[in-house]
Known about the structure:
By secondary structure, this protein is mostly helical. Helix content is 74%, strand content 0%. α3 packs across α5 and α6 runs antiparallel to α7 (126-145). It is elongated and about 55 Å long. Keywords: DNA-binding, Sigma factor, Transcription, Transcription regulation. InterPro entries: RNA_pol_sigma-70-like, RNA_pol_sigma-70_dom, RNA_pol_sigma70_r2, RNA_pol_sigma70_r4_t2, RNA_pol_sigma_r2, RNA_pol_sigma_r3/r4-like, WH-like_DNA-bd_sf.
Amino acid sequence: MSGSPAAPHQLDLVPDALLAARAADGDTAAFEALARRHGPLMRASARRLTGSTADADDIVQDALIQAWNQLDSLREPAAVKGWLMRITGSRSIDHLRRRRYDAGLDALDTTRDSRSSSGQGSWPDPEAAAVDGSRVEALKAALSRLPEEQRRCWVLKEFNGQSYEDIARTLNISTDSVRGRLARARIALASTMEEWR
């Protein structure tokens, strides 16, 4: 017999820093505990970026493989969560580049649907639904006209909630570049969406 069935549950209580250090030494059970702990957040992040649950699952799997192979590059074991989220963001961006799939657009519909369904259970007013649908389509069109680097920054900030520093690390650019791209994206979107205010 190898290993105790209770071991994974005991590892779930171990702090990130210790799990990351043990995983870096080749402890697969410690790495699996990290994956169980942070996998759902990684998946949610990837799904928000890609708009697809199936793609998110693939991205998380790829991100975990990359993390396992690069554990020796993690300088601060206690920061493993942020490190995993940055890898997930990078893998998501890579996926979007390959697929030419706009990350935020499907998430926009999902966000709009969940907001309208959180009401009092009544059917939405058809006119309001049509206006909302038109607003979403206008924002999709406006986002699609943004330069790709501005769109990526905007999606990572607005849909993924990443900080300027995290976006800079994900896209391998300076935080000043992130600020500039976000400012230009917001100005362009505000101008295009003026009639919907």
